[in-house]
Design a protein that fits this description.
Chain B: InterPro entries: Ariadne (IPR045840), ARIH1-like_UBL (IPR048962), E3_UB_ligase_RBR (IPR031127), IBR_dom (IPR002867), TRIAD_supradom (IPR044066), Znf_C3HC4_RING-type (IPR018957), Znf_RING (IPR001841), Znf_RING/FYVE/PHD (IPR013083). The complex is a heterodimer of chains A (152) and B (516). Helices cover 23% and strands 14% of the residues of chain A. By secondary structure, chain A is of the alpha+beta class. Chain A has a single domain, classed as Ubiquitin Conjugating Enzyme (Roll), CATH 3.10.110. In chain A, strands 1-2-3-4 form a four-stranded antiparallel sheet. The radius of gyration of chain A is 15 Å and the shape is globular. Chain B folds into four domains: 158 residues, Zinc/RING finger domain, C3HC4 (zinc finger) (Herpes Virus-1, 2-Layer Sandwich); 43 residues, no CATH class; 48 residues, no CATH class; 155 residues, Four Helix Bundle (Hemerythrin (Met), subunit A) (Up-down Bundle). Chain B is built from 17 helices and 13 strands. In chain B, the strands form six sheets. Chain B has a three-stranded antiparallel sheet with strand order 1-5-4. In chain B, helix 12 runs antiparallel to helix 13. The two termini of chain B are 50 Å apart. Classes of the chains: A alpha+beta (152), B mainly alpha (516). Chains A and B meet through helix 1 of A and helix 7 of B.
Chain lengths: 152, 516
């Protein structure tokens, strides 16, 4: 109830207007949405690529943060970034309990991720990516990330 | 008679004519306070009400000094993690900054929290814009509709267990929701939970307070043992709920082993380090490609499946060096083979050593469980004894105390083996092992008597009581002796500095491991 009312309004707004480089792909229900983002600035790391984001909402959204991951398919790679694991899991304080504010929404998350990529210059994965990708069985929202990097 | 030097006593002496008998205060004191053993620590158990009382008292005290209302003081104290002195210092120095950081910036005075209807308001959370929407904002001005605010607080309190540091829902706003605002917004049952969580943070924030880890236990224990002393003291405390636990690490009582050793031991028992030892004790590596090989038959001429290297299983030397002495390794002195055998012998010995201690450790753990089963049967025996022999309830209590002593002694014995595993060999260790042996024998003797049929139990009463007392005594001796040696000796700093040295002193004890 809580989530659907808000998501309905967000959807309406997204249909009216989306910021450049962001596209609504699928929003058939109020549980899972797909969004595409592109980096508009001329960052050679992300030139010409489109990334697909999967949003998962709990019934308590937007009080609780949505779970947001990059998904990989033939047309959509996982972007290089020191905070993005190769399985698409994103380590960003905005998406964590501590950093999330109910004032955020799907659009603002997309914009934040866009700018996170824009400012990045390192073609890197987070340290320990191999192990994390192989052994992690937790859902993104249950992982306790330690945020120590305020640079990117 | 000892002379009295106490000034008060001297004055009393001159004021009143105290007769000789009354001067013997000291010996009386000794009678009242039982001598403390080296392994015992001072602690106090507090009920939830007492903890609340402590908080209220400190809030009132600091509130007076700072001239802030109790609600604000409570927030300040929680923000400063109940470090009263630091809070007061900082507050006196830079009041505004302290208030700002605790989310109390600017006017913490006037404006009691209240609901408002604002024309043209749109809630940023639910996007509602009805004209009759009740809204709420703290002094920071981040205004949301009451329903969203409530939902937000409810989620924080109920699902995330937050209390003392719930922030305003606004993005990046650090203002903490104060208890007056909270009172206005949340339902009564949630308020109880909130209070409970607040009390929890008090105990969590205080270094010298710890919750009893027993299920459903509501007590907290106060013990003034510093973290750095945990190397030398094993602070076992006894909760009101009868649970014994270590104040240092909240695990079950693990005397005589210090927390750091316990952690190391448990990790060792869990991880694969001994699997690795089994592998190196029972297999060999191809000298060339290092594939692991277990030989299950056949002759000594090995050809590695992987790299086709040919070598001798006995001496691990290259097979071609064997010349014509096929199938018969007599090349004991070969250097290459010698080293391989040495390494294997070391692994084997290390594994055996570990298993020696582990088996005994595990055995006592297991036996303690079995003893517990026996105790349940004993309870039945106690009723039976009362019925068949006409003994009274008080007369069969010896079984109960015997069983409890057994449990406690096994717990101690169990940890003596983990402790001993890490001990380097010296005289102290030998004395320790003697103590351990004495306690073990006493325990096994007592344990054996439990298995006797009921009709014999009555006749064994005196003997059993003796043995129970003996077990308890042996346990005290062992713990006292170990704790004494742990406390004494060089300062703790030495063992911390010598982290790279393998033989580390902990008090008088020398260990063969590196401790953190």
């Amino acid at each position: 109830m809580f989530a659907s009312k808000r998501l309905g309004k967000e959807l309406q707004k997204l249909h009216d207007h989306v910021p450049p480089g962001i596209k609504l792909i699928k929003a058939d229900d109020f549980q899972e949405w797909l969004m595409d983002i592109q980096v508009i600035d001329a960052n050679p790391l992300y030139q010409g690529e489109t990334y697909r984001l999967k949003f998962m909402f709990s019934g308590n959204y937007p009080i609780e943060a949505p779970e947001v991951v990059f998904v990989k398919d033939d047309a959509h790679p996982i972007p290089w970034h020191p905070h993005v694991y190769s399985n698409g899991i994103i380590c960003l304080d905005l998406l964590d309990r501590q950093g999330w504010s109910p004032v955020h929404n799907v659009e603002s998350v997309c914009v934040s991720l866009q700018s996170m990529l824009t400012s990045n210059t390192k073609k890197e994965r987070p340290p320990g990516d191999d192990n994390f990708v192989r052994y992690n069985t937790q859902r993104p929202r249950d992982i306790n990330f330690v945020f120590h990097d305020n640079q990117v | 008679m000892l002379p009295l030097f106490h000034p008060l006593m001297q004055r009393l002496d001159s004021d009143f004519d105290i007769d000789q008998d009354d001067v013997g205060f000291e010996s009386q004191d000794k009678d009242i306070i039982p001598a403390k053993h080296a392994y015992e620590v001072d602690f106090t158990v507090y009920s939830p009400e007492e903890i609340q009382g402590h908080q209220d008292k400190q809030i009132a005290e600091v509130s007076n000094i700072l001239g802030q209302p109790p609600e604000a003081t409570a927030i300040l104290l929680r923000h400063a993690r109940w470090n009263k002195e630091r809070l007061i210092d900082q507050y006196m120095e830079k009041t505004d900054e302290v208030l700002e950081r605790a989310g109390l910036g600017d006017t913490a005075d006037a404006h009691p929290p209240r609901l408002e209807r604002i024309p043209g308001f749109v809630c940023d959370i639910c996007c509602e814009d009805d004209a009759d929407l009740d809204t709420f904002a703290m002094i920071c001005g981040h205004r949301f509709c009451v329903d969203c605010y409530k939902q937000y607080l409810q989620t924080k309190i109920k699902n995330e267990g937050e209390a003392a540091r719930i922030r305003c829902p606004g993005d990046g706003c650090n203002r903490i929701v104060d208890s007056k605002s909270l009172d206005l917004l949340v339902s009564a049952n949630l308020k109880d939970r909130y209070q409970e969580l607040l009390t929890r943070t008090y105990v969590d924030d205080k270094d010298h307070l710890r919750w009893c880890p027993a299920p459903n236990c509501v007590y907290a224990v106060d013990c003034r043992i510093k973290d750095k002393d945990l190397m030398r003291i094993v602070p076992t405390v006894h909760c009101e709920c009868s649970h014994f636990f270590c104040f240092g690490c909240s695990l079950n009582d693990h005397q005589p082993a210090p927390c750091s050793l316990v952690k190391k031991w448990l990790k060792k028992c869990e991880d694969d380090s001994e699997t690795a030892n089994w592998i190196s004790a029972n297999t060999k590596e191809c000298p060339k490609c290092h594939s692991t090989i277990e030989k299950n038959g056949g002759c000594n001429h090995m050809t590695c499946r992987k790299c086709r290297n040919e070598f001798c299983w006995m001496c691990m030397g290259v097979w071609s060096e064997h010349g014509t002495s096929w199938y018969n390794c007599n090349r004991f002195e070969e250097k290459s083979g010698h080293e391989a055998r040495d390494a294997q012998a070391r692994s084997r010995q290390s594994l055996e050593r570990y298993l020696h201690y582990y088996n005994r450790y595990a055995n006592h753990e297991q036996s303690a469980k079995l003893d517990k089963d026996i105790f349940l049967k004993t309870e039945k025996k106690m009723t039976q004894l009362q019925n068949t022999t006409g003994m009274s309830w008080i007369e069969v209590q010896f079984l109960d105390s015997a069983s409890q002593a057994l449990q406690q002694c096994r717990q101690t014995l169990k940890w003596t083996y983990a402790f001993a595993y890490y001990l380097a060999r010296n005289n102290l260790t030998e004395i320790f092992e003697d103590n351990q042996k004495d306690l073990e024998m006493a325990v096994e003797n007592l344990s054996e008597m439990f298995e006797k049929p009921i009709d014999q139990l009555q006749g064994l009463k005196v003997e059993m009581m003796d043995k129970t007392a003996y077990c308890t005594k042996r346990r005290i001796i062992l713990l006292d002796d170990t704790a004494q040696n742990l406390k004494e000796g060089k300062s703790l700093v030495r063992s911390l500095v010598l982290v790279t040295c393998t033989n580390q002193p902990l008090g008088q004890w020398k260990f063969n491991v590196t401790l953190p």
